[in-house]
Amino acid sequence: MPNDNAPAQPFRSGALSDPRLPRPDFPAQEQPFPGLAAKMDPLPDHGEVSYRGTGRLTGKRALITGGDSGIGAAAAIAYAREGADVAINYLPDEQDDADSVVAAIEAEGRKAIAIPGDITDEDFCKSLIEQAVSGLGGLDVLVNNAGRQQFCHNLEDLTTESFDATMKTNIYAPFWITRAALPHLDSGASVIITSSVQAFSPSDILFDYAQTKAANVAFAQSLAKQLAPRGIRVNAVCPGPYWTALQISGGQPTEKAAIHGKSQPLGRPGQPVEIAPIYVLLASDEASYITGEYFGSVGGGGL
Ligand code: NAD
Ligand code: MG
């Protein structure tokens, strides 16, 4: 059926007025964690229509955690358009978003493996790698992208359970998943971790989250040195404000989510598709001398 709302020009122009790059204020909205991108207003642009591939990842096999929505979904769609087969992990509640990403990958004629499960469970992390490797026939690219961000105004109100869940999701899981993946990664493989501008400019209300994102940078810098002799590269991506479900499912107070990105020089949050090129570059063989680095995409404010 023709989509009457489809813009005449499907690809982003990059112009300030491009409707695919909407500007705040956004409607006030809240969802329970982990949230669904498909229920957001405006809908995030994961590149479904707007990402063009040029075969830069032909034949590669990638696993992306948090690949159902937001930045991970944009990376997954871009990877498929660049010629990769892609496995995505997500929480069972996010099946609807995951189904859309799987459909987008398969529309490119690439293999899509959907692996729901909770990465705060060490045994699941091992099984995740086993399922990805058997489904894809190996592994060349690992993107540790899943994350938990729940704001809290006062340290006295931050429970041990919440602190622990943030640490498990953002620090332990990348360790467990990467350790399980290493026996399957050969020279030329790439490991990517999604950190944040919060690693360098922590918000008052993201005390636990900001610490994990600083740890993610150290993850890349340390592991890059350790794995260089094996020809495996490790890098971190540090997004600034991006329009994703993370922000409207407890990541920010509702009134702050509505103006997410407004204070940046570009005056808006990034759309997930706008950071996908960094993930593509870091996964590609073109990045053969890029390791132990972190890359920002913050909207003008810098890291
Ligand atoms: P998102 O909500 O779309 O993606 C996060 C994903 O993490 C979820 O889709 C979910 O599948 C996954 N996840 C969370 N807990 C999990 C668990 N226990 N088990 C399995 N999966 C789990 O939001 P996003 O903004 O695209 O987040 C992706 C990454 O980007 C995160 O690491 C986040 O910290 C980082 N980041 C986001 C922003 C932003 O403004 N959106 C800024 C800086 C960094
Ligand atoms: Mg999601």
Can you describe what's shown?
Belongs to the short-chain dehydrogenases/reductases (SDR) family. With 303 residues, this protein is of the alpha/beta class. It has a single domain (52-239, 270-297), classed as Rossmann fold. 34% of the residues lie in helices and 12% in strands. The protein has eight helices and seven strands; from the N terminus they run βαβαβαβαβαβαααβ. The chain has helices at residues 70-81, 95-107, 122-136, 160-181, 207-227, 245-251, 254-257, 276-283; strands at residues 61-65, 85-90, 112-116, 141-144, 190-194, 233-239, 294-297. The protein has a seven-stranded parallel beta sheet with strand order 3-2-1-4-5-6-7, with helices on both faces. β2 (85-90), α2 and β3 form a beta-alpha-beta unit. The longest helix is centred in the middle third of the chain and has 22 residues, at 160-181. It is globular and about 45 Å long. Bound molecules: nicotinamide-adenine-dinucleotide (NAD) and magnesium ion.
Overview features:
303 residues, alpha/beta, Rossmann fold, 7-stranded parallel β-sheet, disordered N terminus, binds nicotinamide-adenine-dinucleotide, binds magnesium ion, SDR_fam
Give the low-pLDDT segments.
1-8
CATH architectural name: 3-Layer(aba) Sandwich
Q: Which strands sit side by side, in order, in the main sheet?
A: 3-2-1-4-5-6-7
Q: Let me know the largest β-sheet.
A: 7 strands, parallel
Q: What is the CATH topology assignment?
A: Rossmann fold
Rg (C-alpha, Å): 18 Å
Q: Total domains, how many? A: 1
In CATH, what is the class?
A: Alpha Beta
The span between the termini is 44 Å
GO molecular function, one term: oxidoreductase activity, acting on CH-OH group of donors
InterPro entries: NAD(P)-bd_dom_sf, SDR_fam
Keywords: Oxidoreductase
Region (Disordered): 1-42
